[in-house]
Design brief:
269 residues, alpha/beta, Arc Repressor Mutant, subunit A, Rossmann fold, 2 domains, three-stranded antiparallel β-sheet, 7 strands
């Protein structure tokens, strides 16, 4: 199967129980094959076969782990998947091409307790982790803080913290975000604190990530370290910009998930 060229090709690609469950698993976090095998409780050769179809359809990407080169992390190309999904809706009916939900009139507004109302207004606590807390996690912290506003309290740390990389500061500035005042911290500083999301953006730190109390969502984004890029300073800088762009995309979708969770809290009674 090659890249989906028609809406029917795309819908056929999704219309299989194993492939749908793989997409659902990868929508939560980047994962290795064995993790997908364990989660789906299916044979490895079957999981690998369907992953290959999703890769050929270009809705799933793969990257060799920087922690163990024998491992491969799989992730969703959410922008491409979304574009195909909306195109498929457009092909069926123009009303299905909009990403905006259709408003439904409700005769009664839900009533929430004071405790539920407080929980609904509480910012989501998010912690980004990478090895040195000098580039990827610092960029992620700054991008989410700039875009999340009152919805989030965001932090970053590392297993071997170092000073923030000057090219990370420059790359953030290219997105009109100032991270020059952020500091590198050791993840042990946060080990006893509760978080709604703990997100590792480095394959190496994922292997040593501690268990956090009341951690509802521990997510992995397999992102290469831009500090390891070779070439001229300008070429290295472009690697940092590319990293910031990937983080911006992932964070945009994370914020959509948070907003949905916030609305669901408001609808709970």
């Amino acid at each position: 199967m090659t890249s989906p060229t028609t809406s029917l090709d795309f819908l056929k690609l999704l219309a299989h129980d194993v492939r749908w469950r793989l997409l659902a698993a990868l929508a939560e976090s980047d994962r290795r094959v064995q993790e997908l095998v364990d989660q789906l409780q299916r044979p490895q050769n079957l999981v690998s076969y369907h992953l290959r179809l999703l890769r050929e359809g270009q809705v799933v990407k793969e990257r060799r782990s920087s922690a163990d080169g024998r491992d491969i992390y799989y992730s969703l190309d959410l922008d491409y998947l979304r574009a195909l999904y909306l195109d498929s809706g457009q092909a069926l009916h123009p009303a299905l091409a909009s990403a905006e939900p259709v408003e439904v009139n409700r005769s009664q507004q839900p009533v929430t307790s004071d405790e539920m109302e407080g929980e609904r207004k509480r910012p989501f606590r998010v912690l980004f982790l990478c090895t040195h807390n000098s580039a990827r996690s610092q960029l992620a912290e700054g991008i989410l803080r700039a875009n999340g506003g009152d919805l989030v309290d965001v932090f970053s740390a590392g297993s071997e913290p170092d000073e923030i990389h000057p090219l990370a500061v420059r790359a953030a500035a290219a997105f009109k975000i100032d991270i020059s005042g952020q500091l590198s911290k050791h993840m042990a500083l946060f080990a006893s604190q509760p978080f709604d999301y703990v997100i590792t953006v480095c394959d190496k730190v994922r292997e040593v990530c501690p268990v956090f109390p009341d951690d509802l969502k521990q997510i992995h984004w397999s992102i290469p370290d831009p500090a390891e890029a070779m070439g001229s300073e300008e070429q290295q800088f472009q690697s940092f910009v590319q990293t910031a762009q990937e983080l911006s995309t992932r964070i945009r979708y994370l914020l959509l998930v948070m907003e949905r969770r916030r609305k669901e809290m408001g609808l709970s009674s």
